[in-house]
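task queued by scheduler; priority normal; single chain, no ligands, no partner chains; default sampling; output format set to structure tokens
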Amino acid sequence: MRVVSSDLRKHILKTYDHKHHELFHRAVANQLNVYNKALILDCHSFPDTPLKRAVHKIVPRPDFNIGTDAFHTPKKLIELAEAFFKERIFTLGVDYPFSGSIVPMAYYQKNKDVASIRLEINRKLYLKEETHLKSENYNKTKAVVQEFIQLLKGEL
């Protein structure tokens, strides 16, 4: 995608990546200390039309996608997501077009009390992709995502 020198790579890792992951680890550790469990909701968006470098180019793409991890995503969370989006007449990809969900390395495949699920939102739901401005459905999409977050919070 772009050429990155080893000096720039080191700078990016030191300035952004390592700091982000340290704060992320601390946040999960705090949740474990307070609640004896942690739920990570890893949020992203994706374009309705696959990018040239996209692995999965099949269209149409779903309205929402959840990414899962065999160790850290309980089946109950997948079932909750499937029911939630189906009830609201949205299409949902499970590990399609993107898979996986983030977990700090200290807990990865070691602690089942750390649950993780990724939520990907198709940009067609809230953006005018040609201008990157909010569409008329922005607030509706935002409300759906907030409702999903509240549902997951109830699982803590």
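post-processing summary
- The mean pLDDT is 93.
- The beta strands are 38-46, 64-67, 92-94, 114-122, 127-128, 133-134.
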